[in-house]
Specification:
49% of the residues lie in helices and 20% in strands. The radius of gyration is 28 Å and the shape is elongated.
């Protein structure tokens, strides 16, 4: 059960809040009536979240206290206040609170704001964990041949830099082909020495196959290098057939057990499902990255290329945001918490929905007795009632009929 600290100098308010929070499944671990006491209790109790009034007696108001608590303890704070003046709002914004609710408030507002704040806190934690595990992703750049699909939001060049450095350190002859890059100055010495060969594809795309053959011949004629590593970043594609011809040369050398490894990198917006399928054929591993927090890696032997469709993320986001109800109802076929619903949608589509929309829908379904609630540890799990289950199935059938009709898919 999540622990909440309530801070307000009005006893009636703190009592009401404690009753409401307890009824919806949270534990109120303490009450404070001033900024100073809020800081002391936060240090001692370590709550998961704090509901904080702004104007209170004492040297520190709620904003001052929240600033100290966030800096020291990194505990999310939601402001509950009767003041909506610009001077308070601007000060509150400066410490990046997890919410700002003006009194009088409704229970559903408190509920939604708390769930959003706790979800955001957990998301930040998972992002930090992802940062610590980036080495797993980099492993893909260091072995065999892979296809790397990225979006414009991805900071690709730090990955490219790591791949090239790994090859140079291991005594490999490296070839880097690109349309645009910021890495050239960084590898100036390696380029001058010939350890790293470069190909500017805007001017030399037609010569890239010759670059590959020359590099392989150099490797065979000398024991200076132990293998050949390439990195081809096709951020723009003018001649797709030439790209396939380059890939064919590389795969044939690999199949003849030539010591070659490297990465074919593509901006995913330049591809469609058919091109992606053709590119992935014969390549052992595919990595798709839509941002630092979302990277999917799979082997093409276990994940068939024909099942991989490529759709621009902005289109996915637009459709998901317009389809909240059918998405939530689909997930409610089994018991799920509001947090799990939001997380599942985010994990599947890389779209973080406005959490208030999800919780408002769940609250409405609960009031209509389509859903019932069961407490499991700290989470409230939503379960369809007997009649609610029938309603959900019928509603999803209606959505299916409407979407099929719109898209011309009906039989």
């Amino acid at each position: 059960m999540y622990k909440i600290l309530v801070v307000d100098d009005e006893v009636v308010i703190t009592t009401q809040l404690e009753e409401r929070l307890t009824s919806i499944g949270y534990e109120v671990v303490g009450r404070a009536s001033s900024g100073e006491s809020a800081i002391k209790m936060a240090r001692f109790l370590r709550p998961d979240l704090i509901l904080m009034d702004i104007v209170m007696p004492g040297k520190l108001d709620g904003i001052d206290a929240a600033e100290t608590i966030k800096a020291e303890l990194d505990i999310p704070v939601i402001f509950l206040t009767a003041y909506a003046d610009d001077k308070y709002v601007e000060r509150a914004k400066s410490i990046e609170p997890s919410g700002y609710i003006v009194k009088p408030f409704h229970e559903s507002e408190i509920k939604a704001a708390i769930e959003v704040a706790l979800y955001r806190k957990d998301s930040e934690r998972r992002l930090r964990e992802f940062g610590e595990s980036k080495a797993v992703l980099l492993d893909g750049f260091f072995s065999d041949i892979m296809l790397f699909l990225y979006t414009k939001s991805v900071k690709k060049e730090h990955l490219f830099k790591g791949g090239i450095e790994h090859g140079l350190k291991n005594g490999e002859l490296c070839l880097y082909a690109f349309n645009h890059t910021t890495l050239r100055p960084y590898f100036k010495g390696d380029i001058s020495s010939g350890k790293l060969r470069i190909c500017e594809m805007k001017r030399e795309m037609a010569r890239l196959r010759d670059f590959i053959e020359d590099s392989c011949s150099l490797l065979e004629a000398s024991d200076k290098y132990i293998a050949f590593r390439f990195l081809f970043d096709f951020s723009e594609i003018e001649d797709f057939e030439e790209v396939l011809a380059i890939k064919k040369v590389v795969i044939e050398k690999r199949n003849r057990l030539f010591p070659i490894s490297g990465t074919f990198a593509f901006d995913i917006e330049n591809l469609n499902a058919e091109r992606t399928k053709v590119l992935s054929e014969g390549i052992p591993r595919v990595i798709i990255s839509t941002g630092e927090e979302t990277t999917i890696s799979f082997s093409t032997s276990s994940y068939q290329p024909e099942s991989l469709d490529v759709v621009p993320q902005k289109i996915i986001e637009e459709i998901v945001r317009k389809s909240v109800e059918p998405l939530v109802l689909t997930l409610l076929r089994k018991p799920m918490s509001g947090y799990d619903i939001i997380k599942e949608i985010y994990d599947r589509f890389h779209v973080l929905l406005p959490q208030a929309r999800v919780y408002s829908l769940l609250y409405n379904l609960e009031n209509r007795e389509i859903l019932k609630i069961k407490l499991e540890g700290k989470s409230k799990v939503y379960i369809p009632t007997e009649e609610g289950g029938k309603y959900i199935e019928n509603k999803l059938k209606d959505f299916h009929v409407v979407y099929s009709h719109i898209l011309g898919l009906e039989k």
